């Protein structure tokens, strides 16, 4: 464990979030996310008791994008939910994200379209990380420095790769700019 030793404690809840990215035979790309919430104790809901280890939430979302990061298709499915015949009714509403770019204001568009009662807070949260999953997916398909590129895509997108940083001076010297 990379964190410091914690105080004595008892685990109550586990949330697992994962993303898998795929290149399709038709030239498009799928980003599949899954969110699972599990309690370590029996959990009484008005809809029934979830036994320890049984998922309270088990949600899936698939976004299909083209190389331009524009969403072509969205699919959402609920395998487990706290309120059957309620939660899953929102699945088709997420198709309103089709045509949205993951790279240009996606999170604002997502929360405007699907935030609060317009969507499922858990699915919306899961989808909010699709842009970074897409960046990682496409990063594996390109070089860090593409020929003819004005500036590598990743520069100025995090503190370590700010063009005034020591990291950029060391690894991307042609794009380094002095901070002062």
Gyration radius (Cα, Å) is: 20 Å
The general outline is globular
Q: How many independent structural domains?
A: 2
- The percent range for strand residues is 25-35%
The main β sheet shows up as:
4 strands, antiparallel
N to C succession of SSEs: EEEEEEHHHH
Cα(first) to Cα(last) distance is 39 Å
Enumerate how many helices there are, as a single number. 4
Strand tally is 6
Average pLDDT over all residues = 93
Residues in helices, as a percent range: 10-25%
Strand order of the largest sheet: 1-2-5-6
Given helix and strand content, the structural type is alpha+beta
Structure report:
The protein folds into 2 domains: 13-142; 151-180, no CATH class. A hairpin with a 2-residue loop joins β3 and β4 (48-50). The chain is 18% helix and 27% strand. The chain has 180 residues and is α+β, with helices and mostly antiparallel strands. The protein has helices at 106-114, 121-128, 130-139, 166-171, and strands at 13-23, 29-39, 43-45, 48-50, 55-65, 71-80. The mean pLDDT is 93. The strands form 2 sheets. It has a 4-stranded antiparallel sheet with strand order 1-2-5-6.
